[in-house]
Amino acid sequence: MGVGSYILDILSNFYGVKGRNELSSRTEARGLGTHIKWVPLDVGLKEAKERGRPIMVVIHKSGCNACKFKPKIARSSEIARLSSAFIMVNLLDDEELQRDDLMPDGRYVPRIIFLSPYGSVLKTVTNRISKYPEKYFYGSVEELIDSMIQVLKIYPLRNILRLLQ
């Protein structure tokens, strides 16, 4: 194993890449991929603060025709890879009502909102590719990946590396 692989392995462990025993159950994943570690909002807020990681919140409805993006997220290896740098939360049906700030421009679904490690909405991170007026609607995997990368630029890897020293 080379030094680069060793460092990548350490960072993967720090970022929380899931082992087989930590995979999400089908209930927690709700169609968004059991290979991604999904946690409830209250657990995610606590874990994000403790670990200094941003949160990605996916808000969707069980009977939503526009929520056809769920299998796309579940199949995307790039989203799975990037998700290891986030605390991943998905809220179904009325679970979003836990916090008013999760509706910055309306209650449409699906929408994906990013939070700081301290739980505040990152209002500057929106879908900047889409032509839709809803800022937090993502119609493609590419649009979501772009926003995930925006968040990782706000919380760069060098800050994580300092924590390891």
Strand order of the largest sheet: 1-3-2-4
Number of β-strand runs: 4
User: How many H/I helices?
Assistant: 7
Q: What is the CA-CA span between the terminal residues?
A: 21 Å
Beta-strand portion reads 5-15%
**Helix vs. strand class:** alpha/beta
Q: Please state the CA-atom Rg, rounded to the nearest Å.
A: 15 Å
Portion of residues in helices?
A: 25-40%
* Uncertain stretches: 1-21
Average pLDDT works out at 80
Order of helices and strands: HHEHEHHEEHH
Describe the structure.
With 165 residues, the protein is α/β, with parallel strands linked by helices. It is 39% helix and 12% strand. The chain has helices at 3-15, 26-29, 41-51, 69-75, 77-83, 141-154, 157-164, and strands at 38-39, 55-60, 87-92, 111-115. Strands 1-3-2-4 form a four-stranded mixed β-sheet. The longest helix is centred in the C-terminal third of the chain and has 14 residues, at 141-154.
List descriptors.
165 residues; alpha/beta; four-stranded mixed beta sheet; 39% helix; globular; Thioredoxin domain-containing protein 12; signal
Brief overview, please?
The chain is α/β, with parallel strands linked by helices and about 160 residues long. It contains seven helices and four strands.
Secondary structure topology:
Layout: H1 3-15, H2 26-29, E1 38-39, H3 41-51, E2 55-60, H4 69-75, H5 77-83, E3 87-92, E4 111-115, H6 141-154, H7 157-164
Parallel strand pairs: 1-3, 2-3
Antiparallel strand pairs: 2-4
